Fold:
Amino acid sequence: MVSEAQIWAWLDEVPDPEIPVLSLVDLGVIRGVEIGEEVVIKVTPTYSGCPATSVINLDITEKLRANGVKNLRLEPQIYPPWSTDWIKREAHEKLRAYGIAPPVSGTALCPRCASANTEMLSKFGSTPCKSHHRCKDCLEPFDAFKCL
Amino acid sequence: MYEFLLRMGDNTLVLGHRVSEWCGHSPVLEEDIALANISLDLIGQTRLWLGLAGEVEGQGRDADALAYRRDAWDFRNLLIVERPNRDYGHTLMRQFLFDLWHHERLADICLSEDDRVLGIAAKCVKEASYHLERSTDLIVRLGGGTAESHSRMQTAVEALWPYVGEMFTDDALDIEMDKAGIAPLPSNQRPRFDEALNITLSRASLTRPAGDFAQKGGRSGVHTEDLGHMLATMQFLPRAYPDARW
Ligand SMILES: [Zn+2]
Structure:
């Protein structure tokens, strides 16, 4: 019998399809793991139209199947709605190192030179979860996680 | 309840499709990406509303079946969302008027006594608020921009004005939903909408059109011919090749 902690550990090894430095657990989309006659994973979507949602479900299924979990069911849970507050604090550093400014209300800090002298170019960036910015000190463009 | 859910889901479906028509044609790359993302959000919200509608209906229809296999007269969206895109200013003004209504509407529906309805509204209201921030900002910039952009925005608000009233008209279904604790009356929102609208139009140096004539019918299935043309494009593939898969 597999333990709940083991399932969480496996899920923490599944990368987010669009931002692979974050695991699904870092991203805060795993709402719960229940072990009974079947293993139930409660999953919440980030943005309602995010194309990664179905890939995330597939990745969870593949990971757990590969580890011998048989009776598996994914249960969508939309309430309470996901927001960037669900992203683990420790994951903010991973985002910054990857070149994406972590979600903050107010001015995004440049992930390269940490300057606050930045401006938003567009409220939408390369994926639904990001906005697009420019650093006025090091002059590099960068994406920031939208604060939702 | 089923009809109420169609009204919510058909608004986001039809506008989501309209906005997606800009994909690859927007004036600048950032706008193209922004519109594609807004469209994605709206289609995602549609999946939630129409998914629940199918469940409530209990005839085995899912969100795809409802989106692709109904005819125009079965659609329950507001007329404003089926208006064609025209120029970019017109598209943005339509988005702004919709976002302003949608955000308030969802905030009201967050008070629903039905947990499933509340769950969807609470999810969507965050996205609607982000969309509203963006469209408000663009209306102010374009209204206060060049003489050309100003005149296009003024023309747009006048062309779309007759489609605003329908958003706040209560009918028998609205009264039933209100009594059942599912969703408050749309007319409740009008004062809040007007207040926010007046502030933004004045920041954008635009004039609020006079008159309150309202084109109605979309919410009971009476549409403009533009919806039929849109559905012909949107539904072609799943109708010509039923059950086609990626
Ligand atoms: Zn910098």
